[in-house]
Amino acid sequence: MQHEIIMPALGMSQDTGTLLAWHKAEGEAVAAGDILFEVETDKTTMEVEAPANGFVVGISADAGSEVPVGQVIAFIADSADASVKSDSVAATHVEATERSDSELPNGKPVIMPTLGMAQDSGLLIAWCKAAGDKVEVDDVLFEVETDKSIAEVTAEHAGYLGARLAAAGDEVPTGEVIAIITPDTVETPIDRSYEAKSVAPTAEPQETSETTQAIEPKVSAPAQTLSPVESRVLASPKLKRLAMQEGLDLELLVKAGVPQPYHFSDLVQLRELAKSAAATLGAPSTTPTIEITATVDANAFDDFLTWLSAHTGIDNEAQVLASLVGSCSTSINTIGVASLGETLVFRTHQQISATSVCDEMEELHLRDLRNTYIESAQMSSVSLPQITLMRQSERLKIALNAPGTAMHAAEALTLVNNFAERLADPMRQLL
Amino acid sequence: MRQITLSQAVNEALAEEMRRDETVFIIGEDVAEAGTPFKVLSGLVEEFGTERVIDTPIAEPGFMGMGVGAAMTGMRPVVDLMFGDFIFLVMDQLCNQAAKTHYMSGGKLNVPLVLRTNLGATRRSAAQHSQSLHALVAHIPGIKVALPSSAYEAKGLLKTAIRDDNPVVIFEDKLMYQDKAEVPEEEYYIPFGEANIKREGTDITLIGTSSMVQVCERAAELLAAEGISAEVIDPRTIVPLDEKTLIESAKKTSRVIVVDEGHQSFGTTSEIASRINEKAFYYLDAPALRMGAMDVPIPFSPALEDITVPTAEGVAENARKLVRGELIHAA
Fold it and tell me: Is the pTM of this model over 0.80?
């Protein structure tokens, strides 16, 4: 049983430690707790104790030398003349490599060193020896870069660089064998880039496959949905707000079988559903619409406007129309009159002169298209009663279009008929 | 523009303010010859002497108390706390004294003190030297909290902090001391309570603090490649918090992830996400999501430590889920 003695990490950001002095000599007996050596970092000096009873062998760092943290600097062995452990390390490594790769030459393995406390891998920057070169102890073999520093790695054994198992630029996990120093020259030295080990049959891969199996269903599982709580529709606040603003019913998504909860992205579909719902429902079922037309001779009204302008100075035709329509219904008090362009909302009065512009909401919308070329217009799905007034040669056409919820049929008929009467004989308005 | 490290930026800010104002001084452990373990203060003791760059014994409550007293009596101390984790040792001086003195003296006393310390894991410093404890301090009324996300912010925020008449705690990310950023030669300040929109986007808002700003920016890059437009915002100070900018962005994108290196529970992410959920509720298409450090002591094992803090990949993955309308936490 051998114990490795490594350069300890004493500071938070320590890469190396200076070996100040050995307190034990090569081959000397030690007891656990004996002071082995002293080490200095940028902050402190510390004595390092032996972890076990035994004999100090294989001291590989001299007093005064700066040693990378984690590097083995000696061993504690069972006997003073025990063979140095690096051989046994070598043995296991060679064994390992031989198992996976029988072509590799026999020799001492060179591994990617651990230079930092938290280093997982090192970047091989450059080789300083070619494959097959003769190597002496302490010859620089290669340069390696970690996140913190660049270090030269030297040979611990003499021999020949029988195999280079990583190339410049390769990122190699620490502890991986990247070269083999053979005792004798090798005829065809191996020189290749680093191949990640594809370890086959041990327990580890099974474990990984298990973990992936455990994770995979989670990943590939269909996106989770919430089951609706009784009659409540689950939707994001944003979608709820927008649906409310647009007068859209989220139930349409429920009926269409769209899984809850709903988000802003469902608004497009909701709009489509609302549109097709409105189309299929059609006029008569839930929201019937009223459509009534009437025509009268145009001359009387034209003459009236001329007369009115001449005798009272009132030449705002929109005002006149609003007064006429307003006096045809007891329930409608504000009328928006639109000629091509602007819409003015009037508060109506029996007297034309008392009918004036207001800034209230219109209860009925009147389109005055008399002075246009338009002869017929179909306005469907309206939200409030609309009257369109058009000129057809010598006649005026009145078209009422109203949602069934806005007025009763009788009321609508009365409205249109009264308006037609007033257009046919406008002087009645003055009486 | 020239690029300097965060260390140099902090060093410059201190030197400039100490030259300008004789009442500014530095006190803490290893601040003079050693220049702190991160070498941030190198050269200051040579210029300003040991009277103004004061090395103390290893006694945080002692030198913090001295700092608070000095601040009450007309000085502007910059107290150096070697690791953010040591803030537990100065809690009474900071939270019971410094934070409350102005209020309890009826406004007669100010405590213009800056506590400079750090946060951040993944430095292999283990559980007692890796915490991000800014939320603890931000919880106490009367203390301002700045979290610089680069050398530029580190300098501008520190200079503002030194001139502030209130206690300010600045947490620098200890992994960013060697990170370089463009810092102008000329003098500048970064006002507190002004968030910085690092990147504009329309699909999701990523709010990051300190080094998590970089994480959010990398996540935004990943998302951009997939056609998801992410907005990245750095609040720069969490007390005061630029709520307006954050909420406006949340209303615009309708999805938010808040990323911070403090523990997730009862933390900075919780506070910011909660304010967004309260104040932008009707504009949200998904719940504002928190991504903090796992609620565990930071492990020393590198493999474990790395998974305890938010990563760009993790942020991007959650962003995708929010944009797709997938549930993050099934109810």
Answer: no
